[in-house]
Amino acid sequence: MSATTPTRPPRRGSWILHSPMALISLTVIALLLLLAVFAPPLWGVEANTPHPDQLLQPPSPEHPLGTDSLGRDILLRTLVATRLSLVMALSATLIGAVAGLLLGALPIVGGPRTQRAFSSVINTWLAFPVLLVAMLTVILLGTGATTAVLALALTMTPSFARLAQTLSARVGGSEYLAAARMMGVSKSRQFTRYIVPNIAEPVIVNVTISIGGGLLALSSLSFLGVGVQPPEYDWGRLLSEGFAQVYQQPTAVLGPGVMVVTAGIVFGMLGEAFASHMRGRGRARALEPKKLGPAPRVEGAPIPAAATTLARNAEVEPLLEVSGLTVAFPGPQGWIRPVQDVSFSIAPGEIVGVVGESGSGKSVTMMSVAQLAPAGAVVTAQRLRFAGADLKGLSQKEAGAKIGTDIGVVFQDSLTALNPALKVGTQLAEVPRVHGKASRAEAHTAAVQALDAVSIPDPERRAAQYPHEFSGGMRQRTLIAMSQIGSPRLIIADEPTTALDVTVQQRVLALLRRECEETGAAAIVVSHDIAVLAELCQRILVMYAGRIVEDVDVRLLATPELLAHPYTRALAEALPDLDTDTTKPLATIPGEPPDLSLPVIGCGYAPRCPFSTEQCRTETPGLVAHHGGRVACWNPQDGRTVTVAELEGVHV
User: Fold this and answer.
1) Cβ distance 481 to 450 under 8 Å?
2) Looking at the predicted structure, is the pLDDT value of residue 233 above 80?
3) What is the distance between the alpha carbons of residues 260 and 191, in angstroms, rounded to a whole number?
4) Which of 19, 419, 478, 524 has a 20 to 30 A CA-CA distance from 261?
5) How does pLDDT run across 370-407, given as a tens digit for each residue?
6) C-alpha span between 219 and 92 (Å, rounded)
């Protein structure tokens, strides 16, 4: 095949043709289903009609498995019993799976308290022996087919619940579910569109395997006389009736025994085939050739200084005001505070960067502002206002009503931030459907337009694809489109260029800047890379050990000697440029950040700072105005006033 020959992706389900286990099991299951449908109308009357002249006949051409004590053909009764046996097993498994799914996965949308309560129920349920639960059900409800189904469903429910609980816990901590909550997606929709599709495959595998086990369990109950009662019969009942004459006529148990074992094995084989397919699905495959669209635009624009002026202008009401923000988590030895006493404000239309080492509290701070604090976090603040609305102490529902689509979030990992079970267009359409009450067609049109606005080639076709079919850069642009589709007033971008190459980084940053300029939205961009922020932002908040240590104009980064805080200066000096002497080692910051699980006394940077004093090690500095910005340092190192004229002459 030549390199230009189109390679079509394999059709969904085509793996079955290459799996002997799947083919065999599906073929046998299909035969069983045909028997369940057609055997009762074809042979039901004959199988149930007694023949006194043919009692306990041995196998013969007319009766291949012989007859029972009433002269009825055992083979025909075995075939007719297929319907009741399968219906009971399927019903019990379905009831147990649905109940377990609701018990284990539904609490994820209900909050931590609901999760703990349901987890206690599951643990208590699992503590009871399976046989005890089944026998107790039979004692309370009496014998019969319905009772047997309910008894088996009750024994299956806790195992399905634990599986669903384990799977949904991963989804519950995902960024795409957090985004859905922030958009105001209803709890029922979160469950059906975000949780269930992402845990469906392993649940289906477990259901398939459980059907085989259910057949064996129900047959055992009927064999013991507490399941199906005469005149009804399933395979277990036929085994019980044939067991009385097994020494005189072994074929009486051969037919129903073979059917029980065969059905149990093939359902188990099908489940194992599904599981094997899921394990091997990560292998590479050829993708459908795509039409090339226009290359994404890379737009560069000088950084406007107007927003910096607005941020410092007391006459302009800030869009976001944060004062005294603290985030704490319970730990084994007390509270852990990754964010402590953080204060800042954002003006309308301003682009502000947040930089710092890993663990400095950047992402936790911004997610707390967006009402997306991690589970278990306790968020307190002296003042937390957005667009004039007080966000302190609000429930998730109340915060969603006040924020709505006014805050858009671009998460760090684009692959986990997008729901892998939904098409990209469907996810983008959530905002106009939930908040704009748009029709399905209108929402789809808006989604395609949003993809086109961020320079996604062939947006109509791309909207019908899944996130894994996008490149990393395209997924990141999709997140920007998702954050913009609701016309937000503030965008929070949490490390939007992580794991992207330099060229794609440039495109993403240019796109984010262009979107803010065209819509007038403000933006907070979190990053480890101070060079990334220097290209995009007007000012930068420098965080260290959970605190803001400096609020600085981005143009000062070009001249590190003008920076006030030693940590900010060290970050800027560690940034290489074309004039960096390659014969010398790059500048580094010695030491490590403090352990925030322990109390931090004084300035957190003091152990690594060459200018620290006794006061730095015993007293915590607060943010104070300093040369047009703010700094938290007892010994600021710039040493002189920086004039506005000097700033205007600096180009980063």
Assistant:
1) yes
2) yes
3) 36
4) 19
5) 888 887 788 999 999 998 888 887 776 777 777 777 88
6) 13
Confidence of residue 7 (pLDDT cuts 50, 70, 90): very low
Please give the CATH number for the structural domain made up of 306-406+488-648. Answer: 3.40.50.300
Smallest Cα–Cα separation from 540: which of 349, 363, 344, 371?
A: 344
Strand partners, 542: 355, 550
Rg value, the chain, Cα: 33
DSSP 464-532: TS-GGGS-HHHHHHHHHHHHHTT--SEEEEESTTTT--HHHHHHHHHHHHHHHHHH--EEEEEES-HHH
Q: Is 126 helix (H, G, I), strand (E, B) or coil?
A: helix
For residue 610, the model assigns a pLDDT of 87
Helix (H, G, I), strand (E, B) or coil at 452: helix
Give how far the C-alpha of residue 13 lies from the chain's centroid of Cα atoms, to the nearest Å. Answer: 25
What is the reported pTM? 0.67
Indicate the domain borders of the chain.
73-279, 306-406+488-648, 417-486
What's the length of the chain?
Answer: 652
CB atoms within 10 A of CB 558: 14
Of the ranges 14-18, 101-105, 331-335, 395-399, which is most confident?
Answer: 101-105
| pLDDT tens sequence across 238-282 | 999 888 777 777 888 898 999 999 999 999 888 888 777 766 554
Neighbours of 599 (CB within 10 A): 10
**Rounded Cα–Cα distance for residues 235 and 252 (Å):** 11
For 229-302, strand residue ranges (E) read none
Instruction: 34-42: list long-range contacts, CB under 8 Å, 24+ apart.
Output: 35/79, 35/82, 35/83, 36/82, 36/83, 36/86, 36/87, 37/83, 39/79, 39/80, 39/82, 39/83, 40/80, 40/83
Reference 11, options 382, 286, 251; nearest CA is 286
Longest dimension (CA), the chain: 117
73-279 domain in CATH 3.30.930.10? no
The number of angstroms, rounded, from the C-alpha of 386 to the middle of its chain's C-alpha atoms is 27
Q: Give the pLDDT score at 280.
A: 57
- Does residue 505 carry a pLDDT above 90? no
- pLDDT at position 88 is 94
How far is it, in rounded angstroms, from Cα 522 to Cα 305? 14
Instruction: Report pLDDT digits (tens) over 421-466.
Output: 889 999 888 888 877 778 889 999 999 998 988 888 899 999 999 9
- Please give the structure tokens belonging to residue 319: 């869009």
Tell whether the torsion through CA atoms of 615, 621, 624 and 630 is positive or negative: positive
pLDDT at 13: 63
**Residue 586, φ and ψ in degrees, nearest 5:** -65, 150
Taking CB atoms within 8 Å and a gap of at least 24, the contacts of 275-279 are 275/205, 276/19, 276/21, 277/15, 277/19, 277/22, 278/201, 278/202, 278/205
Rounded CA-CA distance 366/496 in Å is 13
Q: Is the pLDDT of residue 94 over 80?
A: yes
| Phi (first) and psi of residue 49, to 5 degrees | -90, 120
Tell me if 619 sits within 8 A of 303, measured CB to CB: no
Helix (H, G, I), strand (E, B), or coil: what is residue 241?
Answer: helix
Average model confidence (pLDDT) across the chain: 82
